[in-house]
Each structure stands twice: as C-alpha cells, then as structure tokens.
Design brief:
206 residues; alpha/beta; Rossmann fold; 4-stranded parallel beta sheet; 47% helix; 13% strand
C-alpha cells in the first residue's frame, strides 16, 4: 500500500505538488510514496467526480488529497471551505473516512505563487522581486495595501507577458522547487502543510 494518492484538475497543479512533495525535509515529514492523477474534466470534474474517480484506489493508498480551483469549478458562489466540505463528505461516504482531505485554491492555484521570494522573480523572467511588484501595482494588478494580487492568475500571466516568457508548467515546478515555505502566507498552503505533518511527520512514523 502506497502512502498517498492525489487528484488534481490540471497539469500545473501536478508539477507544483510533485515538486513540493519531493521536499520532504523542508516539510519535516518522512519520504512518502505517492501518485498524482489529473482529472480529465478539470475543475468541474474534480468537484463532481472525485469520489467516483478515487473509489477504486481505496485499498491501494493510505490517504488521499484532492486539489482544484474554486474559479472555474462551477461553484463560485460558495466559499472554498464549503466546497471542500462537499467533497470530503462524498469521499467519506465512499470509504475514505478519516483518510481524506480537500484543498480548494481560492481563487486559483496561482495564489500559492505570490510569495516574498526572489525565486518568483527569477522564474518569471524579472531581475528582482521589487521590479515585478512595481510593474503589477503600476498596472493595477496588485493593490498597494494587499499582500498578494486579488486576481493571482491574471497577475501571473501579465508578469510573464511583459517579459515575453512562455507560460509553462515548468515555471510552476521551478518556483515550487526553490521557494521557501516560510514565505507563503496563503491559508490553503498552511492547511496543506498541517495535513502532511499530521499524516507523515517524522516523529509519528518512527
């Protein structure tokens, strides 16, 4: 039995999570055996079909994690916690019981990218983080009193366009591989960290 099966809604999420889970020492967890699957119907498919997709894996993995964007899920009128609870309820009914968790990116995956790290600038083609932030604020992608852009995906894409950098999953992977975890203040990332430590902490698995 492997440790973890992850269901995501697109390739960018796949590469981000694969890069993060290889940094087990930074998470203070044991090395884990995991597999990541991409749902063919993207965010709506994950919301509607996670339980069905994961049912056949019940006896092959100890735990499951589900990730997708609130934006584009078809459930934008609900908040992220409500959406996550809907899926957790279905997973538990289908046999996962206390072995499942759901993380909804609010509004999208790029909310994890906006951290105070020089690697964010480096991997998006900018000389430094200050120049990147100045560009986004000057062009109304980032309000001065906020810690990150309200529309993180649009801001991310604008930053790439300005530097003529082709958007690719490799950029997401590189940021996830290099950036320090302490720089991420997003509640869903902190939740992810807590889940991993609860399930796979070094002390717990000795």
């Amino acid at each position: 039995m492997k440790d973890l099966i992850i269901l995501v809604s697109d390739k960018n999420m796949y590469y981000v999570l694969d890069a993060l889970l290889q940094r087990h020492k930074a998470f203070q967890i044991k090395p884990i055996e995991y597999d990541i699957y991409i749902h063919p119907l993207r965010d709506p498919g994950v919301y509607q079909g996670s339980a069905d997709f994961l049912r056949s894996f019940l006896r092959q993995y100890r735990f499951t994690l589900v990730f997708f964007d609130r934006e584009g899920s078809g459930k934008e009128k609900k908040d992220a916690d409500e959406i996550a609870e809907d899926i957790i309820t279905n997973l538990k009914r289908n046999g996962w019981e206390d072995r499942c968790e759901v993380i909804v990116f609010d509004p999208e995956l790029e909310t994890w990218a906006w951290i105070n790290s020089p690697y964010l600038a480096k991997h998006t083609g900018w000389e430094n983080l200050s120049l990147l932030q100045d560009f986004l604020r000057t062009n109304d992608y980032w309000e001065m009193d906020l810690q990150k852009p309200l529309r993180p995906k649009e801001a991310f894409e604008a930053a790439l366009r300005e530097k003529r950098v082709q958007r690719s999953s490799a950029i997401y992977k590189n940021i996830a591989s290099d950036a320090g975890f302490q720089d991420c203040i997003d509640p869903s990332f902190k939740k992810f960290h807590r889940i991993l430590k609860h399930w796979f902490s070094v002390e717990k698995n000795r």
